[in-house]
Amino acid sequence: MTLVTERSDARSIAITSSLERQQWLEAAVEALRIRFADAGYNIPQKVRVAIGWPKRAATCGAVGECWAVEASSDQHAECFISPELTEGARILDVLAHELVHATVGTAAGHMKPFKQCALAIGLQGPMRSTTAGPEFVQWADALMERIGPYPAGFLTDTPKQGTRLGKCECPRCGYLVRVTRKWLTLAGPPICPTDRIAMVMEETPRP
Description:
Radius of gyration: 19 Å
Number of helices: 6
Largest sheet: 3 strands, mixed
Shape: globular
Order of helices and strands: EEHEHEEHHEEHEEHE
Strand content: 15-25%
């Protein structure tokens, strides 16, 4: 996008790379409003989105975050998407996840109201770390053909992990365990003792 804005004094201001990125996000939000509406949900008008480090990124690896309207001085839901993300399609499904929080209310957590909305727009579980389902992937690909690829790079922050535990969940029964990153790397995720299937590592839990 190479747009310019016109000011009242007739001078033009070129759109900077940071504004271009923000325009891409805003276009994605407007497209998601339509997708939510088609599924029977309405994203609140008072929503702001931005690329920025989620508050819990350092402690749990969050790649997205939605702050409740009660935390905002002007009653907006504030959504942040991690600058670590590298692909536009992934940014779109994380953005959709946070907009589900904004739509059903952050107090719902990842319980039934959140799950119903997330599934309705094409996300898939586990709910704390959703990813794009097949229909959402197709929708995202079509959207990026219209608005273009994500117009920015990414940041890399790789602090020492120490002994921080990774959280694994059984996709069938929801059984939870925590495993050190070392053993997840060496041996992969554990097997659920109930269903005898591989558990899923929740790499991107979000509040």
